[in-house]
Amino acid sequence: MVGGRPQDVIFTSGGTESNNLVIHSALKHFHKTHISEGDAAEHPRPVAGALPHFITCTVEHDSIRLPLEHLVEEREAEVTFVPVSKVSGQVKAEDILAAVRPTTCLVTIMLANNETGVVMPVPDISRRVRALNQQRAACGLPVLLLHTDAAQALGKRRVDVWDLGVDFLTIVGHKFYGPRIGALYVRGLGELTPLYPMLFGGGQERNFRPGTENTPMIAGLGKAAELVAENCEAYEAHMETIRDYLEERLAAEFGKRIHLNSRFPGTERLPNTCNFSILGPQLQGRSVLAQCRTLVASVGAACHSDLGDRPSPVLLSFGIPLDVARNAIRLSVGRSTTRAEVDLVVQDLKQAVARLEGQA
């Protein structure tokens, strides 16, 4: 499914564990190879005694953002959160490169955003990182490792680790109709790319992730991946057709009151995601959904479910105005979603809005 080798994949409990494992490994590798006392004495390095530095962007999933913020709080690392462009919705490769320091050890950029579906320029970033690594190696500086959280993109578009040029790639089963289990791709696991276990035990998964493997879930993940590998183009085409129909129906029903939060001119996005706001003072996303009789949806990411009526910080980072972001609703279409279901949902939204505005 991702174009890697079987020996470069280890199984985890999910995306959160995979992401934490990558961050943990980058931190550990920095300490082991660049600031050990013996090494510093024999081969003085420009980064001796310094904290490792991580680069990510402002719209990452919480399973990236929170571990990095924790490292900063514990004074174990420094982190640069690079903002995304308000025009394209993407993080720019040149902004990532501009944030690099002598102590930078990991660049982690999601492949596609989970709230808007915007696809990030990971191949461009990886090309520039590889070129920079040649210069850094000559100066005795740590090589930059590159990670992408591909959770949201898998099953909706073709994903190939060689095209992406990444060292690590996070895989999440339930995002492509598999069970709730995850995996981590590591380029040349243990040979070209370092991985350090967070757990110690019976030696399963070549000691990188010990603990008895959940064989039924792994088999389910494998079957789901097989289906994606065989049918991804058909899945993508169907989702895009239905998503476009959904946006056409929303525009037809609500006219200029619809703001499509996930559309950035000229920017690729996932085929299944539609993030929109219906403009109006009473039409906060949560309030609209509470009035719906048929539709079940979310106002953002599950990891932001504790925000109440506060808008998603991810949407604000994308440059969506506060009053628009507060009204946001995120809909996802799937492999079997039909036009009839879209019609049902749009009608449900129309009635929900009428009820809310009738109460004013």
Could you characterize the architecture of this molecule?
This protein has helices at residues 15-34, 37-42, 62-73, 93-98, 122-138, 161-164, 215-254, 285-291, 313-317, 322-325, 339-359; strands at 9-12, 53-57, 78-82, 104-108, 145-149, 168-172, 182-186, 258-260, 273-278, 328-332. By secondary structure, it is an alpha/beta fold. The strands form 2 sheets. Strands 1-7-6-5-4-2-3 form a 7-stranded mixed sheet, with helices on both faces. A 3-stranded antiparallel sheet has the order 8-9-10. Helix 1 runs parallel beside helix 3 (62-73) and helix 7 (215-254) crosses helix 11 (339-359). The longest helix has 40 residues, at 215-254. The radius of gyration is 22 Å and the shape is globular. Mean pLDDT is 93; it is low at 37-44.
Provide the descriptors you would attach to this structure in a database record.
three-stranded antiparallel sheet, globular, 13% strand, 360 residues, 10 strands, alpha/beta
Number of strands: 10
Major sheet, described briefly? 7 strands, mixed
* Cα-based radius of gyration, to the nearest Å: 22 Å
Q: Give the averaged pLDDT, no decimals.
A: 93
Helix content: 25-40%
List SSEs in N-to-C order: EHHEHEHEHEHEEHEEHHHEH
Neighbour order of strands in the largest sheet: 1-7-6-5-4-2-3
The coarse overall form would be: globular
Q: Tell me the β content.
A: 5-15%
- Please tally the helical runs, counting DSSP H or I stretches of 4 or more residues: 11
Distance N to C terminus:
51 Å
Question: Spans with pLDDT under 50 lasting ≥5 residues?
Answer: 37-44
